[in-house]
Amino acid sequence: MNAATPDAVQDFLREYVAKYLRGQGREVPADLSDDCDLLLSGYVDSLGLLELMTAIQDHFGREIDFDELDAEQMTIVGPLKRFVAEKLARP
Amino acid sequence: MQRALWSGFLRSSEKFADRSALFAEGKFLKYSELRAGACRVAATIQAHVDPSETTLTAVFTYRSPTAFIGVLGSLLAGNGYVPLNRTFPIERTQVMLERSGCRSIIVDEGSLPQLNKLLETTSAPLLVLAPDALDLTSYKQQWPQHTFLADHELKPAERWREPAFELDSIAYLLFTSGSTGIPKGVAVAQRNVTAFLDYMVERYEITETDRLSQMFDMTFDLSVFDMFVAWERGACLFCPSQKTLIKPGKFIKDSELTIWFSVPSTAVFMKQLGMLKPAQYPSLRLSLFCGEPLPVSSATAWLEAAPNSILENLYGPTELTIACTRYRWDPVCSLAESEFGIVPIGYPYPNMGVLVVDDNLLEVSPGHEGELLMNGPQMSLGYWKDPAKTAAAFLAPPGKSEIYYRTGDRVRRPLGNAPLTHLGRIDSQVKIFGHRVELGEVESKVRDACGYDGVVAVGWPKTDSGFGGVEVFIEGRESALEKLRSAVAKDLPEYMVPRRFHFMDRLPRNANNKYDRKAMQKLLEEGL
After folding, report:
1. For a designed S-S bond to B58, which of B102, B341, B462, B528 qualifies (C-beta 3.0 to 4.6 A apart)?
2. Residue B307, Cβ neighbours under 10 Å: how many?
3. Would you tell me which residues 225-284 of chain B have a C-beta closer than 8 angstroms to some C-beta of chain A?
């Protein structure tokens, strides 16, 4: 199991987005800021977000109930990484 | 009887004027309101554009009320619509607009920021309708060759006159990814769409109390089902925002949907994210899937979550208008009828002809595999301004006088009354050391062994006679490789056993979210 600090989640998100953009032959951003909206930036599409959530669960080895996170928040890097880290910190 | 595609909507707008036709961007639009908006757009196009110049209008929108007003407005002006998508790369949209030759375009508020960029490559004068905008002065100054009309500059709805309907009038021109990398436009006639709709509304007994999902973007032709099946019978269409799309379960519940239609991938991910718990979606009476192979495991999980729903798997290329075969899941016999863990595509729609042929386009005998050819009232007009590509794909096989469309899909010609089963794409069959290998078979074994649904097999490396072997891409987390390899090897001849497994968080996909085998081949060429 991977340690799940907000920074670790951020690293995972950055790698994930980079792989996705490279697969499409698009430019990869150097970093993702906390207020970056993954959906509105075109870094993932809506189906891609469902895939991203599955990938987060696989990577950190835990099921996460994303239903508790507001839809407006769950595509934004800052709230998303804090939510995931908080969920994973609980036993 | 031939009728215009807009006739069903007009009838519903009179009969159900005060019922809701659409929910988008958080608000309901009544049939009377949707009609009024569409008639203003149509009247404006009729007043400004000479119909002899073009028969197409572009709709540059995304999931807004104006998107739907634009589609109906184009049709009511007597034009076909060309959907453009602001979530696509702008270069792709530029090519689509220029190739279509549209002289008018409808733009919604969210797409306006991309308008300047889009106009950079537009050669002919364009009529730009922006019903969400109040002031377009800056555009008018920057682009004097084009005409810009904001909300208050549109003609009143009363000025609209119903246009003449011609037999081959284009309903929509839809661009699909071409093998050369340049999108090709499929021209679909109104008579193709009405033939499809007549069957769908009867088969599914659509009424004004139905509530349909609009999961598909308008650049995906399955969206035509959502809109026009709903409006044909006075039902309401629920269009989720880009943000709501990521919570499909909440969307079904909040909207109390009765009819669901999506790609199977959505069901696959809902299952993985725990959104398919038993009896979660009792409001659904009909669930439809189309666009890619539907795994049996997804279908059964869906039915547990939607216990009051029937489930049908649809199949159809854009060239045959939305969908042209259907298969209803039956708990008694469907498991036995499925091949490689994939739900059959079933039976052709009435009046659609089926031919299963070999490499020489000669019909194979029952029980054998071949390429699926189809024709009938849903066979589209062909590729926009591309007679060579049209002639290559729409042809009369030897000994036949009728034209058929070559789908490029491999199916088994049914024995007796068995359903058609989809075995993969023609181009997913490769030769490895002279053996014919169906990549779908390798994918199915790997899928079973690793438990992930997203599996794509690719022939690699290239040799003069085909390929030297198979490599497999898996969407998921790397797991015990040796165990996986031996589990797969147990069931496959050696030349079919994948030489390498590549695990990725997300497999490359094309614009319609289908796995992009060519992109994966490219990764291998680049030395993955």
Report:
1. B102
2. 12
3. 242-250, 263, 265-266, 269-270, 272-275
Q: Is the per-residue pLDDT at B464 higher than 90?
A: no
Indicate the helix (H) or strand (E) that contains B458: strand B455-459
Tokens at B142, concatenated:
């920057």
- In Å, how far is A46's CA from the nearest CA of chain B? 5
pTM of the model: 0.84
Share of residues in chain B with pLDDT > 70 (%): 97
Q: CA B384 from chain center: how many Å?
A: 18
Q: Which residue of B62, B91, B246, B473 is the best one to mutate when testing the A interface, meaning the one whose CB has the most A CBs within 10 A? A: B246
Closest CA to B131 of B238, B40, B233: B40
Provide the shortest C-alpha distance from residue B457 to chain A (in Å).
16
- The beta strand positions in B93-231, using DSSP E, are 104-107, 127-130, 147-150, 170-176, 184-189, 211-213
ipTM: 0.73
Contacts of A15 in chain B (CB under 8 A): 505
pLDDT bin (cut points 50, 70, 90) of residue B180 is very low
* Contact between B234 and B31 (Cβ < 8 Å): yes
Which residues in chain A are contacts of B247 at CB distance < 8 A?
67, 71
**Residues in chain B within 8 Å Cβ distance of A74:** 246
Helix axes B65-76, B31-48, angle to 10 degrees: 50
Interface with chain A: mutation pick from B273, B277, B456, B507, highest number of A CBs within 10 Å: B273
* Residues on chain B touching A57 (C-beta within 8 angstroms): 272-273
Would you state the pLDDT for residue B89? 75
Going A34 to A40 to A41 to A47, the CA torsion angle's sign is positive
Tell me the residue length of chain B: 528
Please state the three-class secondary structure of A23-48 as a single string: HCCCCCCCCCCCCCECCCCCCCCHHH
Mention every residue, 6+ apart, whose C-beta is less than 8 A from residue B105: B57, B58, B59, B60, B84, B97, B126, B127, B128, B129
Token pair 């215009």: residue: B4
Any idea how long chain A is? Answer: 91
B506 contact A CB<8A: yes
**In one letter, which amino acid is B216?**
F
